[in-house]
């Protein structure tokens, strides 16, 4: 049976404001599944042209698939969001690249014609599900020295990356982190980020209020909690390096422990046009790559090389990058490799995870919503990349094309 | 001034209501989406989960007042542009704490709490910024009312219950409900909520009806109810949403609504309970309280407070609270029931008989126990008819959307019929509903004993025969128990569980466990003639019939009990029960207690003539054919004399039943009369009424309940 590969497009993406994990965090008493459910509902409200019964699948990623992130969260979230019972769903996991993988997997389904439209997203409530909850690593990892013990601790892998590339100093990392905060603050001032945020009702019980000193009752989360406007280099320099004495990685030059969820709608381009849905980005190619788990932060480099090689594009063809800022050093390893300057305004122009936070499996779609906003603002850019490093030594890259591209070079 | 109110509430709360579960008024400020500004959100939360709903006692009101004072200051300072009120998960608020009402001893206390509610809630309507109530979950009484002081309301489509239950209990909605609700949704709809639903055994509104009646301005889905309520509020503030309110007819339309309320109240309580009439007076006057007319509104509030104080200091309300407590609490923990762990599992049920009662039982067992049910009878035609009835009932449930088609098929597959009783060989519970005659029933049980497993409970639905006698000749009389339902089985909640002389605890525990699964209110009764409800009703009807036999006109005798507000008149009740059954039960009781019970010759003549009632169908006109049958004396009593005699007889009988130990306490008699005969809350069943009217002391020598239990404490 002959068939043609279809173009998969990014129709729309939204996310919750990201919160800080822990008892004082805004989502301390909010369920993880509720976060992703509210994203799905917002997508349906924003895209009335999308008939809910035409959604072919719901792929939701979570790293720790336990409790309110378990029970095949894509299916349960679909039911709880009020999608018709005929719409299936599943759970997906590639740690930090969970939502990104939900997107690429769904998009592949679109490309072969198995899907017309899908919901893909991710959630991670690191307050309710701390990293490493209930993990049971095979003892062979240690006995056979398959990986260094540091591979399990992301902060240590980032320190390892500094070791591998001595030119990537703590000072450069801190400067990068400061810029991330400044760019994020500006993006908020310009109203770019808020467009894709779903306000979330948050509750603090009297008990939790007494324990934290925060006010009790219902509130509404409308902005990212982790942001630190007013960050200074001096302040950053003074922070502790928890992973190593006199190390380089601090709470300031890395993303924190966060709670949040994202969701997106992908569709075949034909379906999107037929239903009057926006086409914000066109998926060109994607690639995943493995690296030594001890330096997982290097993952985006081979993943991006691989994706570029498949398309015949070069790094010079890419006008916008959304690199997940798990650690500043990992972004710098990427930019250094591709000959980009530390402050290149093609990279994370609206700030990144250092400012907004990084609720592991949800972050991939945040990169996409920000890249889509960049595309909208910059019709002179034709191609963009979303890329991220992944635990246990992986990188993930998606190349996107800007449908608004007008062929003119910006003056 | 306000400081004084808050301090007063705290002080009086501590003094008079130390057990109050205190609700907090939690306030957080938030940014509304779309740049609509900052909103102060007040969450009403008592610190427990939804199993302990949020209530408003004195200290709770003080907390809400304090929260609203803070909000008023923030609004005045320009810190917020709007205010909203919502509840903890699943619960908005369920109003005044009934314990506080029950413990009130002085009129002044009630006036204070009535005025305090108005004053505290008015802090919302006095704000100069738009106010919203987000009805996220159950909202009753004062919970509904606090939202009426807001400018706008949203409601969750999953809201399970909203009501103003005050008239059901014997109160009026006294924190603004009578005055504000008709002015918001119109008098017609207000009468539906305040009178009709309340008097319809406290019928609840669900979210969509709350919207449809106009109590809420918008219906929102539960998944993101609070977020969308806030988004909606933001759009209202920005003028992107406009809210339409109905034009209210303050003339003839208002009159008609109040008149409809009166006719509902007359039909339900016949003037015997003051609460709905007081509520209607206030609703009537509330037509003057046009939004914006503060003086008229205050006049309405004052009338509410006065009515509340009168009612709380009246015995009808105390009896209502007592009755409510019986059906809410005592019904769930039957007095004298054995340890529930002794109960044996019931995985299959047998029913002997396939008549109407047996078919109703089959339906109930299938629906609630969801286990196989086998019907047996003497001929196939009757069995087919019984199964046909069950299938038709299942189809009705399916048609109403109460069950889906898979469940309907499952239920239908559960019921089978058989001419012989071999289908009972693996039954755990067999109930007989055959002809009401000792010999027949004994034969049935004897036959069953040879078939059913040793652990099987044998239950009888007899209404008047001795369960002990029925079991006497069995090898295992200890597994026989009385299981007496009331007709119609699906509607009357009562199940009298009869412990015969040799019934063992495991059998009794199994009976109670089955009853609980059937969602019945069970009361443990001794194996005494006609148990509780039929004995009381028969004694009572016997006095009415005696008056007729002696020469009092049927309609005079029948009207005698009207001032009690019973659900139906004695002669109507006789028609419902059927003269034959009534005559039979009277015969049984006359045999047991010839000094107090007798059969009525006139009733006997009706039965013989095959008449089903005294009256022509749907009238209170004596059927001329019946009139021709009656042979009466020449002693004509007044209504009052008949009433006095009937009530004295009832009091005497109940005293004797308590002395005989038929039930554990007078409370059980009342619970039986409420749930088995539909006797009203304002009588407290019956013993509170007999106490307060003095009949108990006159006819039975002493009260049934201590003063204060179901009457105003002295």
TrEMBL record, chain A:
Residues 280-401 form the Thiolase C-terminal domain. InterPro entries: Thiolase (IPR002155), Thiolase-like (IPR016039), Thiolase-like_sf_Thiolase (IPR050215), Thiolase_C (IPR020617), Thiolase_N (IPR020616). GO terms for molecular function: acetyl-CoA C-acyltransferase activity. One of its GO terms (cellular component) is cytoplasm. The active site is at residues 96, 358, 389. Pfam families: Thiolase_C, Thiolase_N. It comes from the Bacteria. Belongs to the thiolase-like superfamily. Thiolase family. PANTHER family: 3-KETOACYL-COA THIOLASE, PEROXISOMAL, 3-OXOADIPYL-COA_3-OXO-5,6-DEHYDROSUBERYL-COA THIOLASE. NCBIfam families: AcCoA-C-Actrans (TIGR01930). This is Acetyl-CoA acetyltransferase. It comes from Mangrovactinospora gilvigrisea. The lineage of its organism: Bacteria, Bacillati, Actinomycetota, Actinomycetes, Kitasatosporales.
Automatic annotation (TrEMBL), chain B:
It catalyses: a (3S)-3-hydroxyacyl-CoA + NAD(+) = a 3-oxoacyl-CoA + NADH + H(+). One of its GO terms (biological process) is fatty acid beta-oxidation. Residues 348-527 form the 3-hydroxyacyl-CoA dehydrogenase NAD binding domain. The keyword Transcription does not apply. Pathway: Lipid metabolism; fatty acid beta-oxidation; Lipid metabolism; butanoate metabolism. Keywords: Fatty acid metabolism, Lipid degradation, Lipid metabolism, Lyase, Multifunctional enzyme, NAD, Oxidoreductase. It holds the Pfam family 3HCDH. InterPro entries: 3-OHacyl-CoA_DH_NAD-bd, 3HC_DH_C, 6-PGluconate_DH-like_C_sf, ClpP/crotonase-like_dom_sf, Enoyl-CoA_hydra/iso, FA_oxidation_alpha_subunit, NAD(P)-bd_dom_sf. In the central section; belongs to the 3-hydroxyacyl-CoA dehydrogenase family. This is 3-hydroxyacyl-CoA dehydrogenase.
């Amino acid at each position: 049976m002959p068939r043609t590969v279809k173009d998969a497009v990014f129709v729309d993406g939204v996310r919750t404001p990201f919160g800080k994990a822990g008892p004082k965090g805004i989502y301390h008493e909010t369920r993880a599944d509720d976060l992703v459910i509210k994203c799905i509902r917002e997508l349906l409200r924003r895209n009335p042209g999308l008939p809910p019964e035409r959604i072919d699948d719901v792929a939701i990623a979570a790293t720790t698939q336990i409790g309110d992130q378990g029970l095949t969260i894509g299916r349960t979230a679909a039911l709880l969001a009020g999608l018709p019972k005929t719409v299936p769903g599943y759970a997906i996991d590639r740690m930090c690249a969970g939502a990104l993988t939900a997107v690429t997997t769904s998009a592949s389904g679109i490309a072969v014609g198995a899907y017309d439209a899908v919901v893909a997203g991710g959630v991670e409530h690191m307050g309710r599900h701390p990293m490493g909850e209930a993990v049971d690593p095979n003892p062979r990892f240690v006995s056979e020295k398959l990986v260094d013990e540091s591979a399990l601790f992301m902060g240590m892998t980032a320190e390892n990356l500094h070791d591998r590339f001595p030119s990537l100093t703590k000072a450069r990392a801190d400067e990068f982190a400061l810029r991330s905060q400044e760019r994020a603050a500006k993006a908020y001032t310009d109203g770019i980020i808020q467009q894709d945020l779903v306000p979330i009702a948050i509750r603090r019980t009297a008990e939790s209020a007494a324990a934290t000193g925060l006010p009790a009752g219902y509130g509404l989360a409308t902005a990212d909690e982790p942001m630190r406007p007013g960050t200074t280099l001096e302040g950053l320099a003074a922070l502790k390096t928890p992973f190593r004495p006199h190390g380089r990685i601090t709470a300031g030059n890395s993303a924190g422990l966060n709670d949040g969820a994202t969701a997106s709608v992908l569709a075949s381009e034909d379906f999107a046009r037929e239903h009057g849905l926006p086409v914000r980005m066109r998926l060109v190619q994607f690639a995943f790559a493995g690296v030594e788990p001890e330096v997982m932060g290097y993952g985006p480099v081979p993943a991006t090389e691989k994706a570029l090689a498949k398309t015949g594009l070069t790094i010079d063809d890419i006008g916008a990058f959304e690199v997940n800022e798990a650690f500043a050093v990992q972004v710098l390893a990427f930019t250094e490799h591709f000959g980009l300057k530390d402050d290149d305004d093609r990279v994370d122009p609206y700030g990144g995870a250092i400012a907004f936070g990084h609720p592991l499996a949800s972050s991939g779609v945040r990169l996409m919503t920000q890249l889509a906003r960049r595309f909208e603002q910059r019709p002179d850019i034709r191609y963009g990349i979303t890329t991220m490093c992944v635990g246990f030594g992986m990188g993930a890259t998606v190349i996107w094309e800007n449908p608004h591209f007008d062929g003119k070079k910006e003056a | 001034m306000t400081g004084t109110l808050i301090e007063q509430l705290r002080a009086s709360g501590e003094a008079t209501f130390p057990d109050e579960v205190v609700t907090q008024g939690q306030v957080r400020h938030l940014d509304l989406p779309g740049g609509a500004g900052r909103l102060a959100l007040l969450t009403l939360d008592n610190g427990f989960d939804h199993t302990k709903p949020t209530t408003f006692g004195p200290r709770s009101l003080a907390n809400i007042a304090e929260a609203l004072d803070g909000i008023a200051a923030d609004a005045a300072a320009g810190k917020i542009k709007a205010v909203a009120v919502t509840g903890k998960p699943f619960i908005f608020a369920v109003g005044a704490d009934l314990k506080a009402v029950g413990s009130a001893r002085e009129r002044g206390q009630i006036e204070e709490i009535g005025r305090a509610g108005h004053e505290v809630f008015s802090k919302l309507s006095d704000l100069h910024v738009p106010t919203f109530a987000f009805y996220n979950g159950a909202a009753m009484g004062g919970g509904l009312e606090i939202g009426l002081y807001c400018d706008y309301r949203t409601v969750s489509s999953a809201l399970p219950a909203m009501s103003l239950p005050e008239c059901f209990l014997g109160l009026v909605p006294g924190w603004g409900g009578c005055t504000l609700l008709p002015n918001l949704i119109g008098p017609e709809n207000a009468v539906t909520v305040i009178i009709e639903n309340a008097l319809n055994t406290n019928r609840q509104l669900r979210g969509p009806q709350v919207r449809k009646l106009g109590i809420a301005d918008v219906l929102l889905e539960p998944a993101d109810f609070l977020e969308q309520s806030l988004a909606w509020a933001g759009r209202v503030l920005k003028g992107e949403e406009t809210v339409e309110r109905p034009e209210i007819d303050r003339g003839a339309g208002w009159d008609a609504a109040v008149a409809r309320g009166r006719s509902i109240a007359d039909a339900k309580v016949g003037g015997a309970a003051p609460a709905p009439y007081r509520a209607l007076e206030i609703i009537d006057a509330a037509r003057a309280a046009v939004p914006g007319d503060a003086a008229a509104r205050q006049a309405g509030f004052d009338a509410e407070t006065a009515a509340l104080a009168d009612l709380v200091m009246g015995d009808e309300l105390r009896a209502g609270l007592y009755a409510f407590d019986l059906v809410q609490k005592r019904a769930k923990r039957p007095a004298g029931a054995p340890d529930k762990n002794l109960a044996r599992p019931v995985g299959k049920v047998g029913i002997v008989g396939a008549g109407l009662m047996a078919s109703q039982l089959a339906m109930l067992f299938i629906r609630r126990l969801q286990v196989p049910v086998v019907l047996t009878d003497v001929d196939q035609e009757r069995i087919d008819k019984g199964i046909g009835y069950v299938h038709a009932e299942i189809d009705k449930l399916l048609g109403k959307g109460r069950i889906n088609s898979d469940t309907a098929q499952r239920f239908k597959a559960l019921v089978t019929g058989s001419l012989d009783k071999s289908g009972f060989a693996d039954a755990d519970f067999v109930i007989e509903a055959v002809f009401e005659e000792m010999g027949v029933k004994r034969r049935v049980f004897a036959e069953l004993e040879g078939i059913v497993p040793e652990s099987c409970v044998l239950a009888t639905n007899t209404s008047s025969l001795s369960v002990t006698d029925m079991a006497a000749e069995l090898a295992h009389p200890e597994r026989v128990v009385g299981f007496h339902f009331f007709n119609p089985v699906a509607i009357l909640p009562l199940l009298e569980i009869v412990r015969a002389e040799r019934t063992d605890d495991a059998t009794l525990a199994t009976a109670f466990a089955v009853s609980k699964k059937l969602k019945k209110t069970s009361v443990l009764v001794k194996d005494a003639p006609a148990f509780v409800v039929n004995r009381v009703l028969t004694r009572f009807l016997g006095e009415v019939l005696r008056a007729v036999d002696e020469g009092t006109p049927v309609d005079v005798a029948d009207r005698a009990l009207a001032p009690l507000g019973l659900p139906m008149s004695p002669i109507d009740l006789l028609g419902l029960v059927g003269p034959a059954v009534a005559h039979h039960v009277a015969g049984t009781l006359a045999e047991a207690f010839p000094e107090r019970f007798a059969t009525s010759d006139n009733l006997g003549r009706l039965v013989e003539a095959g008449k089903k009632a005294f009256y022509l169908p749907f009238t209170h006109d004596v059927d001329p054919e019946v009139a021709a049958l009656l042979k009466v004396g020449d002693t004509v009593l007044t209504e009052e004399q008949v009433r006095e005699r009937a009530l004295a007889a009832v009091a005497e009988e109940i005293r004797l039943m308590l002395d005989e130990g038929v039930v554990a306490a007078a409370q059980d008699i009342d619970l039986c009369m409420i749930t088995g005969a539909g006797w009203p809350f304002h009588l407290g069943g019956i013993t509170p009424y007999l106490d307060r009217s003095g009949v108990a002391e006159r006819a039975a020598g002493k009260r049934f309940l201590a003063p204060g239990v179901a009457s105003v404490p002295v």
